[in-house]
Every structure is written in C-alpha cells, then in structure tokens.
Amino acid sequence: MKSFLKNVLANIVAIVLLFVVFFFFFIMMLVFSAMGNDKSVVIKKNSILTINLKTNIIDSPTEEQVGLFNINNQNKNILLYDALEAINKAKTDDNIKGISIETDNLNAGVTQIDDLRNAIEDFKKSGKFVYAYGNAVSQSAYYLGSVADQYYLNPSGMIELKGLATEVTFFKDFADKYGIGIEVIRHGKFKSAVEPFLRNDISPENKEQLSTLLNDLWKNTSAKMAGSRKIDSTQFKTVVDSLYGMIPELGIQYKLADKLIQKTQYDEIIKAKLSLKEKEKLNKISLANYISSYSDDDKSGEKVAVLYASGSINNGDGYNDINSEKYIKYIKDLQDDDKVKAVVFRINSPGGSANASDEILFELQQLKKKKPLVVSFGDYAASGGYYIAMAADKIYSEPNTLTGSIGVFGVIPYYKDIANKNGIRSDIVATNANSQYYSALNGVSPYGVSLITRSVEGTYKRFVHFVTQNRKQTFEQIDSVGGGRVWSGTRAKQIGLVDELGTLNDAVKFAAQKAGLKSYNVASYPKKMSPFEQIFQDLNEDGISARIIKNKIGKANYEILQQITDKKLKSEVKMEMPYQIKIE
C-alpha cells in the first residue's frame, strides 16, 4: 500500500513539475518575443508598403486575441485607425515608393475595406504606384485589391466575384417536432431576430428589408470595383452573374485582372518599377512593421480619445465585447481625464441587452455635459448599438454601415411538451400569485406574457424617445423608420438617423475642431491587454472552455450557442440585430 501511495505521489509531483517547467518556458518565450518586438524598425529607401496575408484589420483593441490560446497565431492585428494613418503617412514618406496588396482572404469588415480603399485612392494622388497580386481571391480581398493600378493573378488562380446573398435558417418545425415551446414578444414588424422561431419562411417585411439592404451595399461596392477596373456597369453585372472570375482566362478577358503571372514574376515587375538591379533585394515592409517604425512618437499633450465599442452589449465586466460595468468605468475615466479634450465613440455592434445599453447611454450623456462627444459607426450600429449613440453631438456613419434596427424583443424557451413525452412533469408550490410566472417546464403564465409585453413596449417607447431627442424628430417620424428595420448608412443619412457619411478619421477631426484643438494626439481606449494579462484571463475555467468551443465551431456559431446557454443573456429584453452581412 505504501509503495502504491509513493507511486501516486511521485506521479502527481512529476505532473506538477512538468506544468511548472512548461509554464516557465512559455513565459520566457513571451518575454523574448516582447523584447524582439521592441526593436526599432528602420525604413530603407525604395521600400514597398505591403498589405499581406498576415494583416488582420480590427476595429477595436478588444478584438485582439493573444495569450495562451493564440500563441501560434502569427497574424498581426492592426487597428483600422492605425492602418489608415500608416497609408496617409506613406503618401509623403520618400522611402515608401508604392503599395503592394497581396492578400487572398482579408480579415476586415466592409466599412473597414471602404476606408482602406479610400485611403489608398488618396495615396495614389501622390503619383506613387499601387499593385496587387492574388491566388484564390475572396470577394472581400478583391474589393480592396481592385483599387490597384495593376492587378495580377496566378495562372491557376481565381477571383470569387459573386455578389451578395443571405440565407436565413428557421427552427419552428424543429422546435415543434421535439416539443420545445418558444414564447416570443417583440415590437416592430421588421424585428426579424425572432422570425426563425415563429415561421418556416422569410416574412414579406424581412424579405423587403433584406433585399433593400443587400442591394444598397452591393450598389456601393460593385460601383467602386467596376469604376476602378474601368468596366461598364452592365458588363460588370454579367461578369458577376456568370462567375467569370472563377476562370483565370475569363478574368483577364473581362478585365478583372491584367495579367496571369507567378508570384516571383510579380516581384520582378515591382523591382523593375523601382529600377533595382537583378541582385538587389526587394524591400517590402508590412503595415504592422511600418506602424512600429513611428508609433513610439511623443503622445503627451492634449488628446482626442477614441473609445472603441465592438461586439455584443452585455451586463458584466468582461474585456471582450461591450460589457456595461467595464464601459461605465472607461467612460468615467475619460470624463475625469483633463488631458482628454474630446471623445469619439466608435461603435461596431449589432446590439444586445437593453438594460446594459441603457446604462452605457446614461454615462455617455454625463460625459457629453463636460466634453464634446462624437460617434463614428463601423460595420454595425444596430438596435442597442444604435441606442448607445443617442448621446452624441454628431453621428458619422459609413455608407455601408448596417444602421438602425430600432426595435425590442424577448425570446423565452420552455420544454413542456418534450418533458411530458418523456414522462417528466412538475408541480409548483408558491407564496404569491406569480412567484413562478416562468418555468422551463411550463413556460410563461398568461399574466407573465402580458407583463413582459408591457416591458417590451415600454423599452421601445424609451428607445424612440432618446432617438427623437437626438435626431430632433417626432415620435411618429422615428416610429415610421423604426419597427426593427435595418438601413444602410446611405439610407440612414437620407432619413435622418445619422448626421454625416464619413470615416473614423472624419469624426476625430470634427471632435478636435469642436474642442477647439489645433494640435492634439489621438489615444485609443480601452488599452490593449498585455500578453500576461490575457494569459491569466484565459486560465479561468469559463474562459478555457469558451475558447476551446469557439475555436472548434467558429465565432458565429459560438455566438448562437451563447444565446441559448449563457445565463446572463437569457430572460431579458433585447435590443439586437438578427444577422450579420459580410462581403466574402
């Protein structure tokens, strides 16, 4: 018996020691990595700024993932604002002679690509060249790459140019088949987030808004691609409808690309453009390294703060997404920081908790009393994401921003039928008439339904009230464009839901002007977590399981699972958009 215990203890000690050694080497690896990243980057003459496969454009510091579960991720995460500033700086940098776009799949949203395209168009005014190369090119990557003076394609490559589509999945028959009851309460015929539980097909209202939205987005993006490639709009439609980009030779014939060449030949073309000798090395510098070459410049003095709010809106204090407790602290800190003279609130959110949205809006209203507050919309500013913008002095939207969705809903699942079919039932003993107004087995009581309906209607009226105040319109005017309907940024400007169509940079300039600043620095909030902070955040039980599941099933599927399983997200009134649209 003693021998057995000794063996067990020896194995336990060995495992602990192994873990300690592994953790030590892991920490040392991070330290050396950080030391390596501190090396200053020197920009040589005849350099080419390169947007490549390792470039991830993110909208917020909270989207950046390092830490324990992303140690092998070699992609560089770059804030959109930093990327735009880098391209603008390269325009007048004598050492940068051109831009090379070398990406087949671009990790960036549609409004982010719009901003990058606009920045590169402005870069071209300097007289410097922009070339692009692709292999198997996604639609989003081509949308960016088509801005180039010359587009080169691999002889066995393809361009997936196909237009936009959305596929809505319905669960009503599934729920009926397996005895799952779903109580749905909503305000707004366009609030289609709950449709999958109510119908087996798209409602006429949802089909109308989806069609309008997709056509608005495609009109903007297709016109830019056709214009850059000098293709007639009618012919461009034929090219897209026929998927000609999938065949390399047809891509050349219909002017989607200029020439079929290998990557080595592409590099030789750039060397010739720079008049480099055969043995001279082509010096390409990534966006991330270029930003590093000047990002340590002095950041003291008066500041315009950009507070990024990206993801779903929830109660709580987590770092990722928009968690109310955390954001209330950020907002109060900015309010009290004397060096911050104006704040730009960058929103990229489809919404979420009505309660959390209301808390954040209140704190922003207090901030506005002290300092100019300008809002900039990214890919999404819908439902709760639009609600929290209602404290702004001015709202900037991108043309392709999904905007509005002024509506409220609640979804309450219960499992009475499936439980009964399997011999499970329950009795209730309570002290008051509605102590058990909701039960997972018995659903919602009639009185509970009426009460939640009142809550949904009251929340909708409060939503519209704040919109009427900010947009200076009547309840009837806002209600007529509300009802849960989602608009493109272009249409949102036309109907008065936003003030201007413009970029994050435009919002920053206006905020500085409103604060009377002639010289200022731009500071990003929240601050990025260090690798060590992210490691310790990863090491809690919920964080580990969440990241493992998310890596296995993907972010989009994980968000659906989270809606069903997360206690914090259940049984509350929601302000949320039903879908996401990407140019893939």
Automatic annotation (TrEMBL):
An example Gene Ontology biological process:
signal peptide processing
Q: Where is the Peptidase S49 domain?
A: 123-264, 366-517
- Hey, what's the signal peptide range on this chain? none
What this protein is called in its record is Signal peptide peptidase SppA
One Gene Ontology cellular component annotation?
membrane
Locate the active site: 191, 383
> Which keywords appear in this protein's UniProt record, sorted alphabetically?
Hydrolase, Membrane, Protease, Serine protease, Transmembrane, Transmembrane helix
Localized where?
A: Membrane
Ranges annotated as spanning the membrane: 12-35
Q: What GO molecular function terms would the record report?
A: serine-type peptidase activity
Q: What Pfam families does the database record attribute to this sequence?
A: Peptidase_S49
Under InterPro entries, the record lists:
ClpP/crotonase-like_dom_sf (IPR029045), Pept_S49_pIV (IPR004634), Pept_S49_SppA (IPR004635), Peptidase_S49 (IPR002142), S49_SppA_67K_type_N (IPR047217), S49_SppA_C (IPR047272)
Concerning its family, UniProt says: Belongs to the peptidase S49 family.
Which SUPFAM superfamilies does the record associate with it? ClpP/crotonase
